[in-house]
Predict the structure.
Amino acid sequence: MPPDLGAPNIGLMFVCHCRALTDGEIREVITGGACDLDEVGLRCGAGITCGGCCPLIEELLAKHAEALRPPPLAASA
């Protein structure tokens, strides 16, 4: 089966170049309880130097929140 080229390999893509943090490291911070950009910055330093990675961090936060959202209930007929 070919790899999914639409999704980055977790832990292999640098998100914050200033702090040399990968998407995997930032995901760990998010799954550890960081729920917004400020909290991610406090926990690992991502997004607090130049801010260039902030859009990617926001995307990771949104994907995590979406994964936690329960599926919609099926309509009864």
